[in-house]
Amino acid sequence: MHANEGGDHAEDWAGDVKKYAPDADDAVIAGIVSYCGIALRNRDSSLVSFTEPNEIARVRENYCRKKLGLTDPDVAIDAAILRVGERMSGDATKNRVTVYYLLADAFGKLGLFRGVSAPETSGTGASGSAAAAVASATPASGSSGAGGPARVMAARVRASRGDGTGYGGFALAVIGLLAVVILGTATLGSQIGKLVERAPEAAAVPQAVAAPAVVVPTIAAPVIPDGAGVTAQDLEGKPMVSVYFDTAKTDIAPGFAETAAPIKAWIDGNPGARLAVSGFNDSRGNAAFNAELSKNRAKAVAAALAGIGVPADAIDLEKPPETTDTGANPAQARRVDIVVKDAE
After folding, report:
1. How far apart (Å, rounded) are the C-alpha atoms in residues 64 and 72?
2. Listed residues 78, 113, 148: the one ending a domain
3. Assessment of whether the complete model's pTM goes beyond 0.70
4. Domain closes at, from 84, 113, 142
5. Which of 181, 193, 202 has the alpha carbon at shortest distance from 137?
């Protein structure tokens, strides 16, 4: 039986995830499998298609926003999704569990699938010794006696009365760590500003705990291909795509649909927005031939945009003042730029 055809196949999912994240947490993988639920019982729904704009939108809205709680712009989230697709480009099929794990890792959200409320850190955020101190001062569920709930409650009463001795930096460390660990728990969260935890047995730990950094994905500066290729970047907060060509060719390189997905998402989310498609050529050869070549390249890109669902009436073929690019190397000059225009 294939791993996607129902039943509990946590080990199969884990094996696929660990091809890309060898140190992946099995508990997190199991949590993602549980989250996906019946979607993993059907082969089609257990895979992610990075060539379908609707699928990219579903991953963004249903998983990244609703499950991971992201509030980043659509373009930034789409870019992160597409980077995962590029990372998995060697696989003919893209396992949904693996895609979701890599996205949660990229946004620092793996902790959501461990059944705890603490945000994911990179290993250098919370001090290991401070975390251990809090763990030792917090009893396991159902414990009793000197280490049970009565002891913790007594410590809180002493702290609220102010009749203990000062513990300086450690008190601040515990407050900071508690703010991270129990953030979102209504009853305790409302008391963070008032409660000072004091634990005499752990007084030797002096350091304060820094809050984990927020991971915000960005589109990296593109690497210009030496021949046919497609790149994406941000231009004044809007997506821009450049399509590069082999010498004297109008053939579009594979991967256009995935790389141009942020352009499609922008058009879908901004009614009235339009795209300017402009072709260029290098300075070698006959000028008349090159001008016609630039126009044909722009037409080929416009057709490719329509092929991924961009409305034809939102695409403007715009001839640049100079189609021959003399200020760049030949590989960079043989291109078509797709730029988002302001809504009219």
Report:
1. 10
2. 113
3. no
4. 113
5. 202
